Amino acid sequence: NYGSLHIDYIYNLPLFAKSGEPVTAQNYECRLGGKGFNQSVAMALAGAEVYHLGKIGNDADALLDIMRKSGVNTDCMSVCQESSGHNVIQRDANGNCNVILHPGANAKITRHEIIETLIEFSSGDWVLLQDEISNVETVINTAHDLGMYVIFNPSSKSGHINKHTLKKVDLFILNLQNAKALSSGKLEDTVLRGLSEKFPDSKFLLTLGKRGAVFFDGKNKIKCSEALYNPEEDGIAEDVYIGYFIAALSSGMSIARALSLAACAVSMIKNENGTETIPQLDINELEHILTNKP
After folding, report:
1. Distant-in-sequence, close-in-space partners of 170: CB < 8 Å, separation ≥ 6
2. Mind listing the pLDDT tens digit for each residue in 7-43?
3. Which residues contact 80 (CB under 8 A, 6 or more apart)?
4. Which of 15, 29, 40, 203 shows its CA 20 to 30 Å from the CA of 221?
């Protein structure tokens, strides 16, 4: 997973700070995340062999600690003098947020580093990436040219999805917002048709929040109707879904079963004191839960 790592610094305030008017925070939280981090941890907990590739600053010991404890191999990560990617978040009494995003080390990954890292892996390996790091196209093109299976899951917040050349992506994992932006379609069927026409050699997983998900290979659709998450909520559910789906699919599980298993993983997310936690269950344990489900 060539993915992003972020530290969120959250300040709970009675109201947003304004210019020249200091506001005292009621409390402070530090949370670890980034789509890359969440997905790597989810894949590893699901039982997949995961290498996280990327760049951090000297302030990322907690990120590395959790990834390693979850089973993620971090040997190929590099450290730079820049701070790690982080967000400074103001959250008011009504739950509204203002966010300052600093990409930090995520934006310092060079083309040379990407090439030198990927050549250490093998043809047939799977490469997952988002668009929260620098030189996304170099990752896609290099991985494809080395015979790897390329999976691309853009962030819904980046706004950069149409700036990339994506013809070498094997599997797109998209929410409806990004799918519409890539395809120029508006409804599910026109979106999928538009994507297939634009990327005829690719497959697509469209996540639909409360309406489940649909997998499309250009000809056939496989639907999963289980609700995944509320698309209006900014939580970890989508990343958990993606991590478990990839882990299940890479293990040889059928697409339909992988979709159901990933949805089951999302249903196992716990929220403790406002903090969501990824299920501590691998795909075999989830398979047992599904098999014995009433």
Report:
1. 144, 149, 150, 151, 201, 202, 203
2. 999 999 999 988 888 889 999 999 898 899 999 999 9
3. 55, 56, 57, 105, 108
4. 40
DSSP-derived 3-state class of residue 204: strand
Q: Is the pTM of this model over 0.90?
A: yes
DSSP state of 159: -
Q: Are strands 275-277 and 270-272 parallel, antiparallel or unpaired?
A: antiparallel
- 287: tokens are 């398979």
Q: Which residues pair with 206 in a beta bridge?
A: 174, 214
What lies within 8 Å, CB to CB, of 59 at 6+ separation is 7, 83, 84
Measured CA angle at 225 (ends 182, 180), to 5 deg: 10
- In the chain, the amino acid numbered 251 is S
Say if residue 194 is exposed, middle or buried (CB neighbours under 10 Å; 0-12, 13-18, 19+): middle
Q: Which of 158, 190, 152, 144 is nearest to 172 (CA)?
A: 152
Measure the CA–CA gap between 27 and 69, rounded to whole angstroms.
Answer: 28
